[in-house]
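[job 0412] stage=fold_complex status=start
inputs:
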Amino acid sequence: MDRERFQERPQGTDVTSASTNDIEFRSVAKRYGSVTAVSDINLTVPKGAFVALLGPSGCGKTTCLRMIGGFEQPSEGMVYIGGQPMNGVPAYRRPVNMVFQQYALFPHLDVEQNVAYGLKQMRPRIPAAEITRRAQEALEMVRLGGFGKRRIHEMSGGQQQRVALARAIVNKPKVLLLDEPLAALDKKLRTAMQIELQSLQRELGITFVLVTHDQEEALSMSDFVCVMSTGRIVQIGPPQEIYDRPASLFVADFVGKTNRIAGTIEPGAGAVLLANGVGLAKPARANGTAGPVMVALRPEAISLVRDGSAALRGTVTHRIFLGSSVEYSVEVEGLGDFLVTADRRSLNDGDLAVPGERIGLSFDPNAMHVFPA
Amino acid sequence: MRVFISSVYLFLYAPIVLVVLFSFNAGRNASEFTGFSLAWYGKALGNTFLVSALQNSLIIAFTSATLAAVFGTMAALGMERLGSRMRALFDALFAAAIVVPGVVIGIATLVALVAVFSFVNPTIAALWPGDQPPQLGLGYGSIIAAHGLFSMALVTMIVKARIASLGRDIVEASGDLYATPLTTFRLILLPQILPSILAGFLLAFTFSFDDFIIAFFVAGSKTTLPIYVFASIRRGVTPEINAIATLVLAASLLLILTARVLMREKKSKSGE
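[job 0412] stage=fold_complex status=done
writing structure:
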């Protein structure tokens, strides 16, 4: 997929060919009275992409989703779907469908009637036989064939989730909106549904927009992740890029686990001086940064060594055994606690460090992400 | 403690039980039971004054409850769209309407109606081309208006609670699935709130049917059943009154029980 098309559009840039983009936000802001929910949102989503809006609660991701769905209208800027301006167009005239967080199934209708609801509203009318056939098809697709006559309250949470999904995809929308659709499921079911959603998206070729606060979900399912914070987009990119090259300390912190180390960079110097006085080679990416900085370092980028060559040394305080990996908490004097994740295979045959042990922390300086503090 | 509670219930219900019991009394004496008989029921239903009062009450109760159900539901739906501050204000006003004593509502309604009539009637008379201008006065209309207005608050509270328990989700989902607001109301909202509207209707009906105080002020020359009972009490309690009271009691209990069942059924269904 062409990443260029996806990137945040600088303000004032003119339209590219609208037909290749399913969703476009141009300088969108949403205010409720004096409260600004989102502002300065510029975003284009190409046809057939799976994009995740990721952020903590209150970051405005749901507001953005609701503006695509037509449940909210932007206070400023324009929202386009399939190249058509959507401002002022109510939800029932938009070619998008949503899977609601609490599913929002109609309790007085049976499963099939729920799924057929959208088709029945379409004008010109669809023949009843075709509505039934397509509803059945959609139910098969979410592996609920034969459940059509069940009442909603007779279905389990996971099944209701799939009914909600079938009710949305049966209409063949341009865009499918998913509002934390897996939040109410237990972990096993959630993983299964993640895979199911991904293959469904490839099968249908529909653009998916997923809202989630779960970074793992966003990274594992989507082609592109749009990280949001306090009503703004802070980074857009493929999952790997978001994880490996976070644009800010916030992204580094929110996506995955991160060690934060305070330090300074003297202007023109080639080293980062950490708060405990240890100097480390400045990573190539940090060129141009000077003054007080915050260094972000992934736990898996650090390895524990016993030979004394490491620049940082500390004491193991906790060890958490996670099966395939081991998490250590290592206290380094002057810098605080470090989280270190060690793959079990990298340790010589169960040669685990023990709490209380003095140990060295070794890492490639280029693994450090340096941000102005 | 047990004795205390028992005596509370005894004082509450013994008179009612006695009324029911003595409505089946063969004799005329209210202090001794001389044998089972339905004679007083027959006599009550043969009394043309009583039957016409009963008719009046039924017409007024049905009309005012219907109006209350329609307008109360509309108010409840409309209040959904208000901002939180305005909604709190209207909530308080509706609650106040239910708390205000009947006497006050009765007097206030009477004063308001008389003031309106004294302004409207001369105006109509002045504009009327014929000899006999229509006169607005107390009667069916005024009782229905007073009852309907009061019960509307009742219906609004009940329907509003139901709408609140539904949440915005299914309404939005229906809109998301291409249904216009009117279709959403017809296919999604109405089936969900219908039991609460019916429950509100039944409570409104019961209220109007039983109400004496408000009706007494605004009835004019019309006689409703409670007004008839009140008037005939002054000529002494007869077993005929007992029979009427028993009928009213049975009808009211039936309606209220139906309303409760309607409200509870929906609550347990939505609570799964």
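[job 0412] summary: The first helix of chain B runs from residue 2 to 23.
[job 0412] exit 0
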